[in-house]
Hints:
By secondary structure, the chain is of the alpha+beta class. It is 45% helix and 9% strand. It has one domain: CATH 1.10.630.10. The protein has a 5-stranded mixed β-sheet. It has a 3-stranded antiparallel β-sheet with strand order 4-12-9. Strands 6-7 form a two-stranded antiparallel ribbon.
Amino acid sequence: xxxxxxxxxxxxxxxxxxxxxxxxxxxxxxxxxxxxxxxxxxxxxxxxxxxxxxxxxxxxxxxxxxxxxxxxxxxxxxxxxxxxxxxxxxxxxxxxxxxxxxxxxxxxxxxxxxxxxxxxxxxxxxxxxxxxxxxxxxxxxxxxxxxxxxxxxxxxxxxxxxxxxxxxxxxxxxxxxxxxxxxxxxxxxxxxxxxxxxxxxxxxxxxxxxxxxxxxxxxxxxxxxxxxxxxxxxxxxxxxxxxxxxxxxxxxxxxxxxxxxxxxxxxxxxxxxxxxxxxxxxxxxxxxxxxxxxxxxxxxxxxxxxxxxxxxxxxxxxxxxxxxxxxxxxxxxxxxxxxxxxxxxxxxxxxxxxxxxxxxxxxxxxxxxxxxxxxxxxxxxxxxxxxxxxxxxxxxxxxxxxxxxxxxxxxxxxxxxxxxxxxxxx
Length: 426
Protein backbone atom coordinates (compact mmCIF):
# COMPACT_ATOMS: atom_id res chain seq x y z
CA UNK A 1 0.00 0.00 0.00
CA UNK A 2 1.46 3.38 -0.96
CA UNK A 3 1.71 6.30 1.41
CA UNK A 4 -1.59 7.92 0.48
CA UNK A 5 -3.40 5.10 -1.26
CA UNK A 6 -6.91 4.36 -0.04
CA UNK A 7 -7.18 0.68 0.98
CA UNK A 8 -8.74 -1.59 -1.59
CA UNK A 9 -11.91 -3.53 -0.87
CA UNK A 10 -11.33 -6.05 1.86
CA UNK A 11 -8.33 -4.21 3.27
CA UNK A 12 -8.41 -2.40 6.63
CA UNK A 13 -9.62 1.15 6.34
CA UNK A 14 -9.13 4.21 8.53
CA UNK A 15 -12.79 4.79 9.33
CA UNK A 16 -12.23 3.84 12.96
CA UNK A 17 -9.59 6.47 13.61
CA UNK A 18 -11.66 9.58 14.05
CA UNK A 19 -10.51 12.12 16.65
CA UNK A 20 -13.21 10.75 18.94
CA UNK A 21 -11.97 7.16 18.78
CA UNK A 22 -13.30 6.44 22.25
CA UNK A 23 -16.89 6.72 21.02
CA UNK A 24 -16.46 3.66 18.79
CA UNK A 25 -17.69 0.17 19.66
CA UNK A 26 -14.76 -1.48 21.53
CA UNK A 27 -15.32 -4.76 19.66
CA UNK A 28 -15.09 -2.97 16.32
CA UNK A 29 -11.92 -1.26 17.50
CA UNK A 30 -10.32 -4.62 18.34
CA UNK A 31 -11.37 -6.16 15.02
CA UNK A 32 -9.99 -3.35 12.89
CA UNK A 33 -6.77 -3.10 14.85
CA UNK A 34 -6.28 -6.84 14.34
CA UNK A 35 -6.73 -6.35 10.58
CA UNK A 36 -4.19 -3.55 10.58
CA UNK A 37 -1.68 -5.68 12.50
CA UNK A 38 -2.11 -8.43 9.95
CA UNK A 39 -2.32 -6.53 6.68
CA UNK A 40 -0.98 -2.99 7.19
CA UNK A 41 1.06 -2.70 10.41
CA UNK A 42 2.37 0.71 9.29
CA UNK A 43 -0.65 2.43 7.79
CA UNK A 44 -1.13 6.11 6.95
CA UNK A 45 -4.57 7.45 7.74
CA UNK A 46 -5.32 9.82 4.82
CA UNK A 47 -7.62 11.98 6.91
CA UNK A 48 -5.22 12.74 9.76
CA UNK A 49 -1.87 12.08 8.06
CA UNK A 50 -0.85 9.93 11.03
CA UNK A 51 1.11 6.72 10.55
CA UNK A 52 -0.68 4.09 12.66
CA UNK A 53 1.79 1.70 14.34
CA UNK A 54 -0.07 -1.37 15.55
CA UNK A 55 2.43 -4.18 16.21
CA UNK A 56 4.10 -4.72 19.58
CA UNK A 57 7.66 -4.99 18.22
CA UNK A 58 7.31 -1.78 16.21
CA UNK A 59 5.91 0.18 19.16
CA UNK A 60 8.92 -0.93 21.21
CA UNK A 61 11.40 -0.18 18.43
CA UNK A 62 10.11 3.36 17.95
CA UNK A 63 9.96 3.96 21.71
CA UNK A 64 13.62 3.05 22.17
CA UNK A 65 14.83 5.43 19.42
CA UNK A 66 14.03 9.00 20.57
CA UNK A 67 16.83 10.35 18.35
CA UNK A 68 14.77 9.24 15.34
CA UNK A 69 11.22 9.25 16.72
CA UNK A 70 10.94 12.27 19.01
CA UNK A 71 8.34 13.55 21.47
CA UNK A 72 9.48 17.14 21.07
CA UNK A 73 8.39 18.74 17.75
CA UNK A 74 4.64 18.40 18.23
CA UNK A 75 4.34 16.82 21.67
CA UNK A 76 3.04 13.33 22.49
CA UNK A 77 -0.66 14.10 22.07
CA UNK A 78 -2.27 13.35 18.74
CA UNK A 79 -5.57 15.21 19.14
CA UNK A 80 -3.78 18.54 19.41
CA UNK A 81 -0.25 19.86 19.34
CA UNK A 82 1.21 20.36 22.81
CA UNK A 83 4.74 20.83 24.12
CA UNK A 84 3.48 20.44 27.68
CA UNK A 85 5.51 18.57 30.35
CA UNK A 86 8.52 16.29 30.19
CA UNK A 87 6.48 13.97 27.97
CA UNK A 88 7.31 16.47 25.21
CA UNK A 89 11.05 16.38 25.90
CA UNK A 90 13.88 14.06 24.93
CA UNK A 91 17.58 13.90 25.73
CA UNK A 92 19.18 15.89 28.58
CA UNK A 93 16.15 18.14 29.33
CA UNK A 94 13.94 15.08 29.74
CA UNK A 95 16.47 13.28 31.96
CA UNK A 96 16.95 16.39 34.12
CA UNK A 97 13.24 16.77 34.77
CA UNK A 98 12.69 13.05 35.19
CA UNK A 99 15.40 12.83 37.85
CA UNK A 100 13.64 15.45 39.97
CA UNK A 101 10.10 14.11 39.52
CA UNK A 102 11.25 10.54 40.24
CA UNK A 103 11.97 11.52 43.86
CA UNK A 104 8.27 11.21 44.56
CA UNK A 105 7.99 7.66 43.20
CA UNK A 106 10.74 5.73 44.96
CA UNK A 107 9.92 2.20 46.22
CA UNK A 108 10.05 3.54 49.79
CA UNK A 109 7.46 6.23 49.07
CA UNK A 110 5.18 3.82 47.20
CA UNK A 111 5.32 1.31 50.07
CA UNK A 112 4.53 4.10 52.53
CA UNK A 113 1.45 5.09 50.51
CA UNK A 114 -0.12 1.62 50.45
CA UNK A 115 -1.82 2.07 53.83
CA UNK A 116 -3.33 5.34 52.59
CA UNK A 117 -4.65 3.68 49.42
CA UNK A 118 -6.28 0.96 51.52
CA UNK A 119 -7.83 3.54 53.83
CA UNK A 120 -9.14 5.67 50.97
CA UNK A 121 -10.57 2.64 49.17
CA UNK A 122 -12.33 1.52 52.35
CA UNK A 123 -13.68 5.01 52.97
CA UNK A 124 -15.05 5.18 49.43
CA UNK A 125 -16.73 1.79 49.90
CA UNK A 126 -18.03 2.79 53.34
CA UNK A 127 -19.76 5.79 51.80
CA UNK A 128 -21.91 3.58 49.54
CA UNK A 129 -21.95 0.25 51.41
CA UNK A 130 -25.39 0.58 52.97
CA UNK A 131 -27.10 1.76 49.78
CA UNK A 132 -26.40 -1.37 47.72
CA UNK A 133 -25.59 0.71 44.63
CA UNK A 134 -23.09 3.25 43.39
CA UNK A 135 -21.27 4.62 40.38
CA UNK A 136 -18.03 2.67 40.55
CA UNK A 137 -16.17 5.27 38.50
CA UNK A 138 -17.19 8.44 40.32
CA UNK A 139 -17.60 6.94 43.81
CA UNK A 140 -14.50 4.70 43.97
CA UNK A 141 -12.17 4.81 40.97
CA UNK A 142 -11.96 8.62 40.84
CA UNK A 143 -11.39 9.59 44.50
CA UNK A 144 -8.82 6.96 45.49
CA UNK A 145 -5.96 7.93 43.12
CA UNK A 146 -6.95 11.61 43.28
CA UNK A 147 -6.56 11.65 47.07
CA UNK A 148 -3.16 9.99 46.78
CA UNK A 149 -1.98 12.64 44.31
CA UNK A 150 -3.27 15.37 46.65
CA UNK A 151 -1.34 13.82 49.55
CA UNK A 152 1.85 13.56 47.48
CA UNK A 153 1.53 17.24 46.60
CA UNK A 154 0.80 18.16 50.21
CA UNK A 155 -2.59 19.75 49.42
CA UNK A 156 -4.90 17.15 50.94
CA UNK A 157 -6.49 19.67 53.30
CA UNK A 158 -8.18 21.32 50.29
CA UNK A 159 -9.10 18.10 48.53
CA UNK A 160 -12.61 19.26 47.60
CA UNK A 161 -11.25 22.28 45.74
CA UNK A 162 -8.53 20.14 44.16
CA UNK A 163 -11.08 17.60 42.94
CA UNK A 164 -13.30 20.32 41.46
CA UNK A 165 -10.27 21.72 39.59
CA UNK A 166 -9.29 18.24 38.40
CA UNK A 167 -12.77 17.78 36.93
CA UNK A 168 -12.53 21.09 35.07
CA UNK A 169 -9.06 20.44 33.60
CA UNK A 170 -9.86 16.82 32.72
CA UNK A 171 -13.07 17.80 30.94
CA UNK A 172 -11.22 20.40 28.90
CA UNK A 173 -8.36 18.17 27.81
CA UNK A 174 -9.54 14.58 27.41
CA UNK A 175 -11.97 15.57 24.66
CA UNK A 176 -9.42 17.73 22.87
CA UNK A 177 -11.56 20.82 23.42
CA UNK A 178 -8.87 22.75 25.26
CA UNK A 179 -11.36 25.28 26.60
CA UNK A 180 -13.32 25.76 29.80
CA UNK A 181 -17.07 25.22 29.86
CA UNK A 182 -18.13 28.55 31.37
CA UNK A 183 -17.95 31.00 34.31
CA UNK A 184 -18.28 28.27 36.97
CA UNK A 185 -15.17 26.52 35.63
CA UNK A 186 -13.32 29.84 35.50
CA UNK A 187 -14.15 30.52 39.15
CA UNK A 188 -12.89 27.09 40.22
CA UNK A 189 -9.63 27.67 38.36
CA UNK A 190 -9.14 31.11 39.92
CA UNK A 191 -9.74 29.71 43.40
CA UNK A 192 -7.34 26.83 42.89
CA UNK A 193 -4.70 29.12 41.39
CA UNK A 194 -4.91 31.41 44.43
CA UNK A 195 -4.63 28.44 46.77
CA UNK A 196 -1.63 26.96 44.97
CA UNK A 197 0.01 30.39 45.00
CA UNK A 198 -0.24 30.45 48.79
CA UNK A 199 1.13 26.89 48.99
CA UNK A 200 4.11 27.80 46.80
CA UNK A 201 4.94 30.80 48.97
CA UNK A 202 4.78 28.64 52.08
CA UNK A 203 6.88 25.79 50.64
CA UNK A 204 9.46 28.21 49.25
CA UNK A 205 9.97 29.51 52.77
CA UNK A 206 9.62 26.17 54.54
CA UNK A 207 10.13 23.17 52.18
CA UNK A 208 8.39 19.96 53.14
CA UNK A 209 8.52 16.30 52.16
CA UNK A 210 6.17 16.69 49.20
CA UNK A 211 6.36 16.96 45.43
CA UNK A 212 5.69 20.69 45.23
CA UNK A 213 8.67 21.30 47.50
CA UNK A 214 10.78 18.95 45.37
CA UNK A 215 9.85 20.81 42.19
CA UNK A 216 10.55 24.20 43.77
CA UNK A 217 13.96 22.85 44.73
CA UNK A 218 14.68 22.22 41.04
CA UNK A 219 13.45 25.62 39.87
CA UNK A 220 16.93 27.11 39.39
CA UNK A 221 17.86 24.19 37.14
CA UNK A 222 14.89 24.96 34.89
CA UNK A 223 12.89 21.89 35.90
CA UNK A 224 9.61 23.79 36.18
CA UNK A 225 10.07 25.13 32.64
CA UNK A 226 9.06 21.69 31.35
CA UNK A 227 5.58 22.19 32.78
CA UNK A 228 5.12 25.83 31.86
CA UNK A 229 4.91 25.39 28.08
CA UNK A 230 1.61 25.13 26.21
CA UNK A 231 -0.48 25.07 29.40
CA UNK A 232 -3.87 23.38 29.40
CA UNK A 233 -7.12 25.22 30.12
CA UNK A 234 -7.24 26.16 33.79
CA UNK A 235 -3.44 26.42 33.93
CA UNK A 236 -2.04 29.98 33.66
CA UNK A 237 0.61 30.52 31.00
CA UNK A 238 4.08 30.18 32.44
CA UNK A 239 2.95 28.60 35.69
CA UNK A 240 5.17 25.56 36.01
CA UNK A 241 3.77 24.50 39.39
CA UNK A 242 0.17 24.27 38.18
CA UNK A 243 1.47 22.65 35.01
CA UNK A 244 3.26 20.03 37.09
CA UNK A 245 0.09 19.34 39.08
CA UNK A 246 -1.82 18.97 35.79
CA UNK A 247 0.80 16.50 34.59
CA UNK A 248 0.40 14.35 37.71
CA UNK A 249 -3.37 14.39 37.39
CA UNK A 250 -3.48 13.49 33.71
CA UNK A 251 -0.58 11.04 33.72
CA UNK A 252 -1.31 9.46 37.09
CA UNK A 253 -4.74 9.88 38.62
CA UNK A 254 -6.69 9.93 35.34
CA UNK A 255 -5.13 6.78 33.89
CA UNK A 256 -5.20 4.84 37.17
CA UNK A 257 -8.90 5.48 37.62
CA UNK A 258 -9.56 4.01 34.17
CA UNK A 259 -7.53 0.91 35.02
CA UNK A 260 -9.49 0.40 38.26
CA UNK A 261 -12.92 0.76 36.68
CA UNK A 262 -11.94 -1.04 33.46
CA UNK A 263 -10.37 -3.85 35.47
CA UNK A 264 -13.48 -4.30 37.56
CA UNK A 265 -15.61 -4.33 34.40
CA UNK A 266 -13.39 -7.05 32.91
CA UNK A 267 -13.83 -9.13 36.06
CA UNK A 268 -17.61 -8.69 35.91
CA UNK A 269 -17.68 -9.69 32.26
CA UNK A 270 -15.51 -12.74 32.94
CA UNK A 271 -17.06 -14.30 36.06
CA UNK A 272 -14.84 -17.38 35.91
CA UNK A 273 -11.75 -15.19 36.13
CA UNK A 274 -13.27 -13.23 38.99
CA UNK A 275 -14.03 -16.41 40.90
CA UNK A 276 -10.48 -17.63 40.34
CA UNK A 277 -9.10 -14.38 41.71
CA UNK A 278 -11.40 -14.49 44.73
CA UNK A 279 -10.25 -18.05 45.46
CA UNK A 280 -6.59 -17.19 44.93
CA UNK A 281 -5.98 -13.59 46.06
CA UNK A 282 -2.23 -14.19 45.76
CA UNK A 283 -2.81 -13.84 42.00
CA UNK A 284 -3.70 -10.16 42.37
CA UNK A 285 -0.30 -8.78 41.28
CA UNK A 286 -0.44 -10.98 38.17
CA UNK A 287 -4.05 -10.01 37.56
CA UNK A 288 -3.13 -6.32 37.71
CA UNK A 289 -0.74 -6.79 34.79
CA UNK A 290 -3.55 -8.44 32.83
CA UNK A 291 -5.89 -5.57 33.68
CA UNK A 292 -3.31 -3.12 32.35
CA UNK A 293 -2.87 -5.13 29.14
CA UNK A 294 -6.54 -5.83 28.56
CA UNK A 295 -7.82 -2.33 29.39
CA UNK A 296 -4.89 -0.28 28.00
CA UNK A 297 -5.83 2.92 29.88
CA UNK A 298 -3.69 4.99 27.49
CA UNK A 299 -4.71 4.19 23.94
CA UNK A 300 -1.89 5.85 22.03
CA UNK A 301 0.85 8.48 21.96
CA UNK A 302 2.51 10.37 19.13
CA UNK A 303 6.13 10.60 18.00
CA UNK A 304 7.59 12.73 15.19
CA UNK A 305 10.12 11.44 12.63
CA UNK A 306 13.30 13.53 12.73
CA UNK A 307 14.95 12.47 9.48
CA UNK A 308 14.19 11.27 5.98
CA UNK A 309 14.76 7.76 4.74
CA UNK A 310 13.19 5.88 7.66
CA UNK A 311 11.66 2.63 6.43
CA UNK A 312 9.30 0.41 8.37
CA UNK A 313 7.57 -2.61 6.85
CA UNK A 314 8.28 -1.28 3.36
CA UNK A 315 6.81 2.14 4.07
CA UNK A 316 8.98 5.23 3.65
CA UNK A 317 8.55 7.71 6.49
CA UNK A 318 9.67 11.31 5.93
CA UNK A 319 11.06 13.91 8.27
CA UNK A 320 8.20 15.65 10.06
CA UNK A 321 5.77 12.73 9.75
CA UNK A 322 3.83 11.80 12.87
CA UNK A 323 3.54 8.20 14.00
CA UNK A 324 0.89 7.05 16.45
CA UNK A 325 1.99 4.29 18.80
CA UNK A 326 -1.22 2.38 19.41
CA UNK A 327 -0.63 0.69 22.76
CA UNK A 328 -4.10 -0.84 22.79
CA UNK A 329 -3.19 -2.71 19.59
CA UNK A 330 0.32 -3.70 20.69
CA UNK A 331 -1.25 -5.19 23.84
CA UNK A 332 -3.40 -7.50 21.67
CA UNK A 333 -0.62 -8.53 19.25
CA UNK A 334 -0.99 -12.21 18.37
CA UNK A 335 2.77 -12.47 17.88
CA UNK A 336 3.32 -11.79 21.58
CA UNK A 337 0.18 -12.83 23.46
CA UNK A 338 -1.57 -16.20 23.29
CA UNK A 339 -5.33 -15.69 22.76
CA UNK A 340 -4.87 -11.91 23.09
CA UNK A 341 -8.57 -11.08 23.28
CA UNK A 342 -9.04 -13.40 26.28
CA UNK A 343 -8.90 -11.95 29.79
CA UNK A 344 -6.79 -14.23 32.02
CA UNK A 345 -5.93 -13.23 35.57
CA UNK A 346 -3.08 -15.77 35.64
CA UNK A 347 -1.49 -14.75 32.31
CA UNK A 348 2.28 -15.22 32.35
CA UNK A 349 4.38 -13.82 30.78
CA UNK A 350 2.72 -10.49 30.12
CA UNK A 351 4.92 -8.08 28.17
CA UNK A 352 2.33 -5.31 27.85
CA UNK A 353 3.27 -1.74 26.95
CA UNK A 354 0.59 0.05 28.94
CA UNK A 355 3.23 2.12 30.73
CA UNK A 356 5.04 2.90 27.51
CA UNK A 357 8.58 1.76 26.84
CA UNK A 358 12.10 3.18 26.74
CA UNK A 359 13.06 6.59 28.12
CA UNK A 360 9.42 7.65 28.54
CA UNK A 361 8.40 4.60 30.57
CA UNK A 362 5.87 5.77 33.16
CA UNK A 363 7.55 7.06 36.33
CA UNK A 364 4.50 6.17 38.42
CA UNK A 365 4.14 2.59 37.17
CA UNK A 366 4.72 0.96 40.55
CA UNK A 367 2.40 3.41 42.29
CA UNK A 368 -0.33 2.73 39.74
CA UNK A 369 0.13 -1.03 40.10
CA UNK A 370 -0.22 -0.75 43.86
CA UNK A 371 -3.31 1.47 43.67
CA UNK A 372 -5.04 -0.88 41.22
CA UNK A 373 -4.13 -3.97 43.26
CA UNK A 374 -5.30 -2.59 46.61
CA UNK A 375 -8.51 -1.03 45.30
CA UNK A 376 -9.57 -4.17 43.42
CA UNK A 377 -8.75 -6.30 46.47
CA UNK A 378 -10.96 -4.14 48.70
CA UNK A 379 -13.83 -4.24 46.19
CA UNK A 380 -13.63 -8.01 45.73
CA UNK A 381 -13.42 -8.61 49.48
CA UNK A 382 -16.01 -6.17 50.75
CA UNK A 383 -18.51 -6.25 47.86
CA UNK A 384 -18.15 -9.86 46.68
CA UNK A 385 -21.41 -9.98 44.69
CA UNK A 386 -20.99 -6.60 42.95
CA UNK A 387 -22.57 -6.58 39.47
CA UNK A 388 -23.49 -4.11 36.77
CA UNK A 389 -26.82 -2.46 37.52
CA UNK A 390 -29.70 -3.87 35.45
CA UNK A 391 -29.96 -1.94 32.20
CA UNK A 392 -26.74 -0.05 32.89
CA UNK A 393 -25.36 1.89 29.93
CA UNK A 394 -21.62 2.34 30.03
CA UNK A 395 -20.53 5.77 28.80
CA UNK A 396 -16.94 5.94 27.57
CA UNK A 397 -14.68 8.96 27.36
CA UNK A 398 -14.83 10.31 23.78
CA UNK A 399 -11.05 10.38 23.54
CA UNK A 400 -8.43 8.75 21.35
CA UNK A 401 -5.85 9.22 24.12
CA UNK A 402 -7.41 7.69 27.24
CA UNK A 403 -9.55 4.56 27.34
CA UNK A 404 -11.99 4.81 30.18
CA UNK A 405 -15.52 4.96 31.46
CA UNK A 406 -17.30 8.11 32.59
CA UNK A 407 -19.89 6.19 34.62
CA UNK A 408 -20.32 2.55 35.69
CA UNK A 409 -23.55 1.91 37.67
CA UNK A 410 -23.24 -1.18 39.88
CA UNK A 411 -25.34 -2.95 42.51
CA UNK A 412 -24.47 -5.24 45.40
CA UNK A 413 -25.91 -6.60 48.62
CA UNK A 414 -25.90 -3.76 51.15
CA UNK A 415 -23.25 -4.22 53.79
CA UNK A 416 -22.33 -2.53 57.03
CA UNK A 417 -19.69 0.15 57.03
CA UNK A 418 -16.35 -0.72 58.55
CA UNK A 419 -15.96 -0.29 62.30
CA UNK A 420 -13.64 2.68 61.84
CA UNK A 421 -15.56 4.22 58.97
CA UNK A 422 -15.30 7.97 58.50
CA UNK A 423 -17.01 10.29 56.09
CA UNK A 424 -14.67 10.52 53.07
CA UNK A 425 -13.73 13.75 51.39
CA UNK A 426 -15.54 14.45 48.15
